[in-house]
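Q: Could you fold this chain for me?
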Amino acid sequence: KGLLEKAEQLKREAASSGSFKEVSFVSAQIAGLRSAILRRDGNLAAANTAIHEALELANQEIARARTISNLNERNVIGDRAQRVRDGILHLMIRQQITEGKNIEAEATARLGLKNIQNEQRGGANMGDWLGRLAQAKLAQRRYAEAADLAQQAIVLLQQNPEGQSSHWLISAQTVLMQA
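A: Sure. Below is the predicted structure, expressed as structure tokens.
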């Protein structure tokens, strides 16, 4: 909790200076950390609130990135914000499955797939989200669908260098074994 308090203090100082443009990016990460701490402490309602706040802040950073005129800066900031948003959605899915909210976990995984398609990011990213959807199907005891999605994820991840040694691949393989 000390780290969280320090991070929130630094964010407030940066925001009050007016010179820090990435307040929503840092705020999203802090809200994600707050959610993890609250979940660990057993305060699931507050953890859910914090993770949804983190998602909103990450989406704000993605929107901010789209307004940057310098193409290189826009791409770097946008890509970073998308990775943070994807990580937040991963946390949401794990939290939803842990709480038995398996239908919500499927909807969250489908949102991740939609984001990848809208942002025209495929390959290993698509494999990751198919794997997340497979996890949600497994949690719903829809074993055949989970196995099919996990196999699709594995193929995509193995075809892409960034997916071949990723935890995404291990996760999809684990789902396939469980299905």
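A (continued): The chain has a mean pLDDT of 90.
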